[in-house]
Design a protein that fits this description.
With 265 residues, the chain is α/β, with parallel strands linked by helices. The chain contains eleven helices and eight strands.
């Protein structure tokens, strides 16, 4: 494994393939989310992953969307300067990765999106109960980031427990919650003000878990995505939000099969 520093962030590269897969996690995770997936894919691909800026414990910061986009661009140009990459995205990684693709389509060959559909289309489809549940946990985490310290860290860990996150709680802290604070209280920097509606022109695989109190995609998204391209696929799992941890064997096999089927000839 190779570790390089890009804009102050450690980027882990493992695998022997020519094509790079850039993996982006969300809350409350780190680069470790993809451990099993990397072990499965490394014989055929170079797996590139990192802990999102601000999700590591040092220093406490809240990058703007433009900063995150610039970091992703620097990373991709560094690890794959002459070839497009595949994006593998989960949770906030989907939001950031989808926006990166819309701004930089020439750098991306394929997208694997996990459990988050088009973020811009979701709000209009939610019931009052679903909207309340989303607002409650997101405001809790926004407050955890604002408070910080031991109290904010404890609030973040407690929310991860309530949400039954299988991620290692040793690495969870309030600094990871900045996307929720910016999303709701960032004013001109609020992500929703800057993000474009996501409509991929490249091949895309979308995987989602059925067993959640709230879905993070619309029914229309499940119908529209396969209609955009013949290579597009939608797969449902009997899991919660963290599919790659809750059904790793099936997840890895499904992703590997799709990547092989959509490889450039």
């Amino acid at each position: 494994m190779t570790i390089v520093s890009i804009d102050g962030t450690e980027v882990h590269i493992k695998g022997d393939g020519v094509e790079a897969i850039v993996m982006v996690h969300g809350w409350p995770d780190t680069y470790r989310l993809w451990d099993a997936t990397v072990e499965f894919l490394k014989p055929r691909y170079r797996c590139v992953r990192f802990t999102l800026p601000g999700f590591d414990a040092k220093p406490r910061r809240a990058p703007a969307l433009d900063e995150l986009n610039a970091f992703l661009r620097s990373t991709i140009q560094r690890v794959s300067p002459h070839r497009k990459v595949t994006l593998m995205l989960h949770d906030w990684g989907c939001a950031f990765g989808y926006e990166f693709y819309m701004r930089n389509p020439a750098l991306v060959s394929r997208i694997v999106g996990v459990d988050i559909g088009n973020p811009r289309g979701l709000a209009r489809s939610l019931s009052r109960r679903e909207a309340f549940l989303i607002l409650a946990y997101q405001w809790w985490l926004a407050l955890a980031w604002k408070i910080g310290g031991r109290i904010g860290d404890a609030m973040s860990v407690q929310m991860a427990r309530w949400m039954k996150s299988p991620s290692d709680q040793r690495f969870i802290h309030s600094g990871m919650a900045y996307p929720y604070y910016i999303a709701h209280f960032g004013r001109d920097q609020a992500y929703r003000r800057q993000m474009q509606s996501f409509k991929p022109a490249c091949p895309m695989l979308f995987l989602y878990g059925r067993r959640k109190p709230v879905m993070f995609h619309t029914r229309a998204w499940l119908e529209e995505l396969p209609a955009l391209r013949n290579e597009n696929r939608v797969l449902a799992f009997d899991t919660g939000h963290w599919i790659m941890l809750q059904q790793p064997e099936r997840f890895n096999q499904a992703v590997g099969d799709w990547l092989s089927a959509t490889a450039e000839r």
